[in-house]
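To illustrate the input format used throughout this study, we show a single complete record. The first block contains the structure-token representation of the backbone; no residue identities are included at this stage. The design step must infer an amino acid for every position from geometry alone.
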């Protein structure tokens, strides 16, 4: 209904040939052109009792992407130190063909991803720029959250190799599954085994312009990045003649400068200045300057890179974006770059089409539920042994189980589950064990 109203308003708006001044004016003051495909926002309020076109906000789950459109959502833009207002690195990229990709999944970011109103069946593709926890720490929340909310298949994870096998993505995911072994084994028995798997594609971190994904019109390529050891990479996602270039953590490197050139959206870290690390982040001076400027990219260096690359729109992230920090970072960038720029924070959304790029903020629920999709999970694997021993089973206190019988009878009738009613067998078994 909302879309119909919006469409009517838009039609009126376009017929009138009037474009509001400041349409798509980014938060950072960047003037950008309107987008046509999503018809996302903007327009004149046509009367005192009508719907106001949304100029600045994106309501997740309310806009269809155009066939030749990309939507990018910052689900994490912060630091390894956790804070409620900003999670660690994660960018959700949605393409007009219906595909969705998570680029990094840093600690705390899944709460933001979950608020984007996307069924978990579509959130099964993760690309890791490197293996610092602020770029992959919430893989557990995606893995288990999706498993318990309807993802029917294994997660797919792409990530770089390292100098040795133990420094690579395959090793990290194999040992992640060891770390969560109790979780995995028990959920496999109770829910379904398939969705608990992780299919890893590890690729050579040294590859340049290396195609790591090519499906349904979306091509993703990798490039080396320079950070704190061999392994980190940058990615380019190409779709419908559009290119989004995403660099995880890196110092200024020649591959980004060469291959992000002319990208529609170029996402690159810009660290806080050394003084800010010392003042706000409790880092000693000797560490503060190295964090900023020796294994990360300073605001001035970010600006220099973007001046060379000249993307249609540049995105700076990986700093706590607040009153104490953002102005000095912005001014640092502006010393060396005067082009279109977003100072990213969590829930910032960009719509990218050939006609224009808009920046908005998502307005989303704090208490998001998982969204139903069309997929159905396979049933539990009855062949696996019960991870609960008879000794523990015998400790069930049956009077409380019987107290829920009437309520469960109704559920069984309503959903025609009578033939799957496990209670008679359980009662019989527990009573025998308790004799
Ligand atoms: Zn890192
Ligand atoms: Zn990082």
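Output of the design step:
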């Amino acid at each position: 209904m909302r879309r119909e109203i919006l469409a009517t308003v838009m039609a009126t708006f376009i017929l009138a040939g009037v474009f509001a001044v400041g349409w798509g004016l980014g938060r950072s003051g960047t003037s950008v052109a309107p987008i046509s495909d999503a018809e996302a926002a903007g327009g004149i309020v046509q009367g005192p009792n009508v719907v106001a076109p949304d100029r600045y906000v994106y309501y997740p789950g309310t806009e269809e992407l155009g066939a030749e459109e990309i939507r990018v959502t910052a689900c994490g833009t912060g630091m390894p130190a956790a804070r409620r207002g900003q999670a660690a690195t994660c960018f959700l990229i949605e393409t007009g063909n219906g595909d969705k990709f998570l680029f990094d999944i840093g600690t705390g970011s899944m709460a933001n991803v979950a608020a984007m109103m996307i069924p978990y069946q579509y959130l099964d593709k993760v690309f890791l720029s490197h293996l610092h926890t602020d770029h992959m720490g919430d893989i557990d929340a995606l893995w288990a959250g999706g498993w318990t909310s309807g993802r029917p298949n294994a997660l797919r994870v792409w990530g770089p190799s390292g100098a040795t096998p133990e420094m690579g993505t395959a090793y990290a995911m194999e040992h992640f599954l060891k770390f969560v072994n109790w979780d995995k084994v028990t959920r496999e028995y109770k829910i379904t085994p398939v969705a608990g798997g992780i299919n890893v594609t590890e690729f050579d971190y040294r590859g340049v312009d290396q195609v790591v994904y090519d499906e349904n019109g979306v091509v993703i390529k990798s490039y080396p990045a320079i950070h704190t050891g061999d392994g980190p990479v940058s990615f380019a996602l190409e779709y419908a003649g559009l290119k989004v270039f995403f660099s995880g953590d890196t110092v200024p490197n020649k591959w980004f400068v060469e291959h992000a050139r002319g990208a529609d959206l170029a996402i690159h870290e810009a660290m806080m200045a050394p003084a800010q690390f010392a003042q706000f982040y409790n880092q000693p001076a000797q560490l503060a300057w190295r964090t900023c400027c020796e294994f990360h990219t300073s605001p001035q260096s970010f600006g220099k890179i973007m001046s060379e690359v000249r993307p249609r729109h540049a995105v700076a992230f990986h700093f706590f974006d607040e009153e104490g920090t953002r102005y000095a970072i912005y001014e640092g960038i502006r010393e060396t770059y005067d082009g279109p720029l977003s100072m990213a924070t969590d829930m910032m959304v960009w719509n990218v089409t050939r006609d224009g790029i808009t920046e908005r903020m998502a307005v989303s629920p704090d208490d998001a539920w998982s969204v139903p999709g069309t997929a159905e999970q396979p049933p539990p694997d009855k062949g696996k042994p019960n991870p609960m021993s008879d000794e523990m089973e015998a400790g069930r206190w049956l009077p409380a189980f019987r107290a829920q019988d009437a309520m469960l009878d109704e559920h069984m009738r309503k959903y025609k589950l009578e033939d799957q009613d496990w209670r008679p067998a359980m009662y019989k078994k527990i009573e025998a064990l308790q004799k």
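Structural context for interpreting the output: The radius of gyration is 25 Å. Residues 1-31 have pLDDT under 50 and may be disordered.
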